[in-house]
Amino acid sequence: MRLEDKVAIVTGAASGIGRAIAEVFAEQGAKVVVSDINLPGAENVAAGIREAGGNAVAVKTDVADTEDVAAMISLAVNEYGTLDILVNNAGVMDNFEPAGDIDEAKWERVFSINANGVMLGSREALKIFREKKKGAIINIASIGGLYGARAGAAYTASKHAVIGFTKNTGFMYANEGIRCNAISPGAVETNIGASMTAINEFGMGRTQPGMALNPRIAKPVEIANVALFLASDEASFVNGAVIVADGGWSAY
């Protein structure tokens, strides 16, 4: 058991990558707080973990809301006594809008979830991690956080922000036993496309040459296994890193 008796929070865990991470962590002995704005979905995941012999509770969380995030962290501590791992996974896509077509409200929504949510969760978790002198933060970024032709301007900028935040946080707390790393997945079988409402034809058209180079689409568990490594003591010297998991997409 690589995470035996560890307490982990996974945001956006009702489906996709978050769900896979929650399930893999539980299989490896972690007590998991399944967090999502979709409470029925989170409860379903937590119930499945318990049925499989694991330990999990669900909580409804808007990661862009300060009070919701504080309540999520408090639930972990009240239920399990502490917190060891935070996975900031919750995120939404844009509609491939280039800079000239950005709607301010949509820009702010993407940033509030993708970037602000990572900051709020990390800030709250660090109160516990700094006191115990140990903790792991794993941020789910994106290949779009490293390249400019994988999404629209808002999503791309928000995931670049996540990577910058990850590196800064990893460095700032490196002497306190706290690690902060990011995973940049390529294309993964998830329902994040449900957050896309009206695709920008120009933006989508401009990204197509890069999209055509993608070797394949990943299963969520393939990303979850990377998160498992980063959460485990095996990654004790991995900090401030960005691990690309894209099947070789960015190698072209």
Which structural traits does this protein have?
single chain; 252 residues; alpha/beta; Rossmann fold; seven-stranded parallel β-sheet; 7 helices; 7 strands; Sc_DH/Rdtase_CS
What does this entry look like structurally?
This protein is of the alpha/beta class. It has one domain: Rossmann fold (3-Layer(aba) Sandwich). Helix content is 44%, strand content 15%. It has seven helices and seven strands; from the N terminus they run βαβαβαβαβαβααβ. Helix 5 links the parallel strand 5 and strand 6 (178-185). The longest helix has 29 residues, at 104-132. The termini are far apart. Keywords: Oxidoreductase. It holds the Pfam family adh_short_C2. GO terms for molecular function: oxidoreductase activity.
Task: Write a brief structural summary.
With 252 residues, the protein is of the alpha/beta class. The chain has helices at residues 16-27, 39-51, 66-80, 104-132, 153-172, 201-211, 220-231; strands spanning 7-10, 31-36, 55-60, 85-88, 135-140, 178-185, 242-245. It has a single domain (7-245), classed as NAD(P)-binding Rossmann-like Domain (Rossmann fold, 3-Layer(aba) Sandwich).
Write the CATH fold name: Rossmann fold
Overall pLDDT metric? 96
Q: Strand order across the biggest sheet?
A: 3-2-1-4-5-6-7
- Largest sheet report: 7 strands, parallel
Q: Domains counted in the coordinates: how many?
A: 1
Terminal-residue CA separation:
37 Å
Q: Tell me the number of helical segments per DSSP (H or I, 4 or more residues long).
A: 7
Envelope shape = globular
CATH class: Alpha Beta
Q: What order do the helices and strands follow?
A: EHEHEHEHEHEHHE
For the record, the CATH architecture stands as: 3-Layer(aba) Sandwich
Helix content: 40-55%
Can you count the beta strands?
Answer: 7
Coarse structural class: alpha/beta
Poorly predicted runs of 5 or more residues? none
* Integer-rounded radius of gyration: 17 Å
What portion of residues belong to β-strands?
Answer: 15-25%
Q: Any idea what the CATH superfamily is called?
A: NAD(P)-binding Rossmann-like Domain
